[in-house]
Amino acid sequence: MYACLGVAGALESSGVRGWVAWMWDSQPDGGSGMARRVKVLVKDLDSSVRKLYRHALSADTRLQVVAYVGSCREALYHALEWDLDVFITNIKSFDGCAFDTVRKIMAACPRVRVLYVSGFAGPPFYARALSTRPAGYMVKPFRVEKLVDVVRRVAAGENYYSRCVQCWRDELPDDSESFWG
Fold it and tell me: Which CATH superfamily is 8-24+36-180 part of?
């Protein structure tokens, strides 16, 4: 299957040009006979949060964090460089819209699963984040052990939403599919 499809036009406006990553995986484990590690990219504006995530995620040998970045531009660069399984991102960003970045990464890497991790709570944030159809949304604060568990679950194909996000989703009308566009 093709991993990340180069979408140069979508990324040109972000300053990332010419990054076209065509990758071919004939088998999920790359043909080695060993279980393939889950490739994760972490984007958070706060370097202390990135350090905390690094400490927690690096303890799990099933996870391979390919980069810890602080900007949308860096996230786009690394997303096209690696065959990502999970992209963890916060909403806050100084160099672009995190939601636009998620859309670009999902267009370039259709199988990537996105997990928002944010301290921003409330319907306006949930609506914008969920309009990108992520695999999850965790509201801070939480224990870092929970993050590791959720990353594993999201990589396995499950969705995860913090209780407040799930309650908000449950209150949407039945025709809410039109809400997502």
Answer: Response regulator (3.40.50.2300)
